[in-house]
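Tutorial handout. Part one gives the primary structure; part two gives the three-dimensional structure as tokens.
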Amino acid sequence: MGFGGISIWQLLIILLIVVMLFGTKRLKGLGSDLGDAIKGFRKSMDNGEGEKPAAAVEEPKGQTFDAQVRKVEEPAKKD
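Part two.
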């Protein structure tokens, strides 16, 4: 028994049909493109977890306010 009830022979027949339909050059190109995509994904994941060089780290810039605390006085009562 293979994967989910598919035997080894059935997998080989499916592989043979795929090779006949697409050809070895197209499958080789597809495999290399897939490998490059996986490498790029892993590289981007590694960079996101603190692997950045010191020059590439930027502080988030938000709005700053230059404010002073003032005491609010009650208005003078007129008699």
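Part three, for discussion. The CA atoms of residues 4 and 60 lie 51 Å apart. DSSP finds two helices and no strands in the chain.
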